[in-house]
């Protein structure tokens, strides 16, 4: 079995999310963001989700992300989504690079929040 989780694919098992970190670079409405159940600055909580977005504009894609998180949480509506302020992209097509950087930082236990990298 591959060592990764896919929202759409069969290896994805939501039951293991209470025991592991989930870091996903996701495409939502022509924009790349990171969805994670991990924030290095906060203690782990099973229904807390964090969005790292280089536009710092959660209203743009929030509906799409909520639907994905509902699927991950077995249809539960009781999901806390936290928008984490991160470094803002300068160009109009840089979001993918920023999302990959945020995902890498999380995987290395580095907080990508703006205040911690400035």
Strands in their spatial order, largest beta sheet: 1-2-3-4
DSSP strand content: 15-25%
**Largest β sheet strand count, sense and barrel closure:** 4 strands, mixed
| Number of domains as seen in the coordinates | 1
Tally of individual helices: 3
Proportion of residues in helical segments: 10-25%
The value of Rg in angstroms is: 14 Å
Structural class: alpha+beta
Total number of β-strand segments? 4
Which word captures the global form?
Answer: globular
Order of helices and strands: EEEHEHH
Flag low-confidence runs. 1-11
Tell me the distance between the termini: 39 Å
Mean pLDDT: 78
Your description of this structure?
It is a single chain. The protein has 118 residues and is of the alpha+beta class. Helices cover 24% and strands 17% of the residues. It contains three helices and four strands; from the N terminus they run βββαβαα. Strand 1 (23-27) and strand 2 form a beta hairpin. The longest helix is centred in the last third of the chain and has 13 residues, at 95-107. It is globular. The model is unreliable at 1-11 (pLDDT under 50). Keywords: Hydrolase, Protease. InterPro entries: Papain-like_cys_pep_sf, Peptidase_C48_C.
Structure summary:
With 118 residues, the chain is α+β, with helices and mostly antiparallel strands.
